[in-house]
Amino acid sequence: MRFISGIQPTGNITLGNYLGAIKNFVNLQNEGTFDDILVFVADLHAITVPQDKLKLRQNIRSLVALYLACGLDKDKCHIFIQSEVRAHTELAWILECNTYIGELSRMTQFKDKSQKHQTDGVSTGLLTYPVLMAADILLYDANVVPVGKDQMQHLEMTRNIAERFNSKYGETFVVPEGRVNKNTAKIMSLVDPTKKMSKSDENPKSFITLLDDINIAKKKIKSAVTDSDMLIKYDFENKPGISNLLSIASAIEEKSIEEIEKSFINKNYAEFKEYVANVVADLLTKIQTKYNEYINSPIIDEILDEGANYANYLADKKINKVKNKVGLGRKK
Ligand code: ATP
Ligand code: MG
Fold first, then answer.
1. Ligand nearest to the CA of 19
2. In the chain, % of residues over pLDDT 90
3. Neighbours of 243 (CB within 10 A)
């Protein structure tokens, strides 16, 4: 059994990315059901929107150090950079020729991000992003793809692309299963709890990054938008802000939401926020201590070299098979 997933180096990794994605990678890694694990840095996805060249380089390395700091184990998984495996873009092209503009333009992420980038221009890459994502997954015959809820629509499309290709050209790809953790599938923005927390949000108060200064992170939690009925109870429809903070604390502490609710009966929002702020601060302190050990260590390059070698080995075999199926080039 193999799982694969990736994160874009589009900014500093948020608590949403940690709880919705990285923490699940680590749990799946440690539960032992997967004998092959691939986790990558999705730098090709990052350039679908404008990026500063130096920042992008920094973010790529920083994301690898964070993967390790959050508990990914170099002896149990292969970590690599997407752009260091050429077959991702090669397969993406072939799959694009088997994907329709209509289905791509219906994707929620495309609609949201193209809206946001009206002024600087909407790249074609933003439209074809889900096809590159399909290539990322299908190249490796991954069985499972752990993601946050926002990516499930793209995963459905990956499944459709795989099934369509298999029926047109004969059995080629494993049809993957998306896996979300239902309690942390969508961590919300701290300034607008009806919106997803995103690392590329223009308002830094809306997210907590794993590398935020501890006091600033605590302040962000304390000023998180809630409501005025003074009840600490999970009710996403009517109390999205409080519900979001409950989800965050419950996931980090690995305690049920009911248990936390019980300990805050007859307490006020300030006390509750103080508690959540401390839970988040403890997590960030632990991660940052490890991050500082990794970020300047040569181990990062060793891990990435090994990861690129392994990923290229698997990907090359697959892309040759795909080209044969389609009739491209000379038979290999
Ligand atoms: P961007 O704003 O640049 O798209 P992002 O925060 O959405 O950044 P991605 O790199 O697009 O991060 O996504 C990485 C992983 O994190 C994906 O599996 C995605 O579903 C998950 N994820 C992103 N935001 C959240 C969130 N708020 N809650 C839970 N999971 C999330
Ligand atoms: Mg995203």
1. 1
2. 96
3. 21
